[in-house]
Amino acid sequence: MHVDEVMVSTDSEEIAEIARRFGASVPFLRPIELAQDKTPTFDAVLHTINYYREIEKRGFDYIVLLEPTSPLRESDDIDSMIEAVVDQAERYDAITSIGEVHEHPSIMKRIVDHSLEPFCKELSQETRRQDNSPAYFPYGVAYIVKTEILLKEKTFYPERSTYYLIQRYQAYEIDDLYDFLCVEVIMQHRKEKI
Question: What is the Cα–Cα distance from 75 to 169, expressed in whole angstroms?
Answer without folding.
Answer: 14
